[in-house]
Amino acid sequence: MSNSFIQIESLSIRFSGNEILKGISLDIDEGEYVSIIGPNGAGKTTLIKCMAGIYSHWEGSIQIDGQAVPTLGSRTLAKLQSYVPQAEGRTNPLTVEEFVATGRYPHLSAFTSMRKEDYEAVNTALDRAGLLALRKRAIATLSGGERQMAFIAAALAQDTRILLLDEPSTFLDYRHQTNISSILKSACRDSGITVIAVHHDINTAAASSDRIHAIKDGQIVFSGTAAETTDIQTLEKIYDTKFISAPLPGRALPLVFTGDAS
Amino acid sequence: MNKGPVTLSILLVCAIATLILSPLFGMEFIPFHATGQEYEILMGIRLPRVLCAFAAGSMLALSGMAFQALFRNPLATPFTLGVSSGAALGAALFIRFGISFVLLGISGTSIAAFIGALLSILLVYGLTKLKGGFSTPTLLLSGIAISFFFSSLILFIQYISGLSHSFRIVHWMMGTLSTADYTNLFNLLPFLGIGGLLLLFLHREMNLFMVGEDLAISRGVNTRLVKKLIFLAASLMVGGVVAICGPIGFIGMMSPHICRLLVGADHRYLTPATFLFGGMFLTLCDTFTRVFSHWSGGAELPVGVLTALLGGPFFILLLLNRKGGLDL
């Protein structure tokens, strides 16, 4: 047995008879920034939801820090990892501050109210996400980018060693994309948080990841570094479509696009 | 400064004032310093009725609030989900077939109504979950279907019942507080106590359910257990009220909605606010029906009719104001 921080072995899951994940095995080290890429419907979101404890009817094993996930209580698991769902446009009537405070849930019992350290964690998270000025605003009144920031802030307030994110920057404008990447990178590099993110965009994934895993039809079809992933042949195998790449002056990684060279 | 605690204090003052002043009003005004027969009416008839109205209003409002958080939909209420009908069916079945008994001071009718409420919650939740998601059409259609089905069952029970049973069942369906007394009050309070305390403790969990079940799980909420506790609390309260006063509608929809505007959506403040507002609201409605009987020559308007008259337009207003998916 290796001793990776997160160890997933032959993870499979079915939904009404269809096998969505077919024996996924993954090892992730603590402090790594890992991206999951792959075509639509490949099982990326399903994988993240299995890891987050949202789905529990899977087979195989998921271990975090040597402990099997099903044996961990829901609060213990939530102190270990936080989750940012795909932005689906659904809002809620809480204010930004109240919403970010929901991240403190696993640290509180039913009989205690928020302590000083909880308020501090909320404040720090609001500050890091640049939401201090918006703290009294209702989530429903925010723009898509600000709302995504609030979701990330709530996950940061949860104060976990692992951050699971499902397409954190899809559909956002460039400024919010940049902000989110820098928050996630700093969480990883400065605070040693293990970041596991599903990315839709290969260039975004390549720019921040230590390691990239590609899923296709419920199976891992490729694992490698950012440089290995931006290889045209590799991408064409993953996505079944033509890619072209363009070198960037002064940068190690090329930019990749879909399309024919013509 | 958070507006929650300030607004809550104002609501508390208003609620206490309502409880003190409401008994004075009725078909005839009775002052505080009344003596003799008037004193008897004040303390023996009007006071228990006012207290019953307050408890019943609180319970209906709180259960509405719990449903709205759980189903993430402002139109989810005991009435629209068919839970009131389920409770009424339980009560009606009990009156027709049951032998009246008292368990720990709680009447059998209340227990039957509680079971009816619980079963209909499980039914409507199972149905909407089966259809994947709590969209407004699915939720309302399931609620209407359940409501119609149970109401026809009640009519059928009435049909096969004798006149005296039938009359008692009609009483349930009207939604009235006119016969409320101290026995009724003591039948309401345990349901309010258990249900209300449960919801008070579950304020963070309800916030997270409102935000989304996946996110609730990822924050460490034991969603299966919490869902059961919310179902239990809500059916205790709906069953408790319906057994005593019949299915009084729309309190459970209006009160949490108005309170969300007053104190915000955080259940830490929303729960006590809804308790106070719901109680006050039904007490005032009931007081109005008593005062109204002064002009109608003694015939009292059932309070359920009044709340429905107010609630219908409110419901339409909510529908018209919906943005997108009508999320909470």
List keywords for this structure.
heterodimer, A: 262 residues, alpha/beta, Rossmann fold, 6-stranded mixed beta sheet, 4-stranded antiparallel beta sheet, 12 strands, globular, B: 328 residues, mainly alpha, ABC transporter involved in vitamin B12 uptake, BtuC, two-stranded antiparallel ribbon, 13 helices, 2 strands, 74% helix, 1% strand
Q: Summed up, what is this model?
A:
The complex is a heterodimer of chains A (262) and B (328). Chain A has 262 residues and is of the alpha/beta class.
Q: CATH superfamily assignment of the domain at 6-88 and 161-258 in chain A? A: P-loop containing nucleotide triphosphate hydrolases
- Coarse morphology of chain B: globular
Which CATH architecture of the domain at 6-88 and 161-258 in chain A would you pick? 3-Layer(aba) Sandwich
User: In the CATH scheme, what's the topology name of chain B?
Assistant: ABC transporter involved in vitamin B12 uptake, BtuC
| Largest interface: pair, residues per side | A-B, 34 and 25 residues
- Compute the number of helices of chain A: 9
Biggest sheet details of chain A: 6 strands, mixed
Question: Secondary-structure element sequence of chain A?
Answer: EEEHEEHEHHHEHEHEEHHEE
Question: Can you count the beta strands of chain A?
Answer: 12
CATH superfamily of chain B: ABC transporter involved in vitamin B12 uptake, BtuC
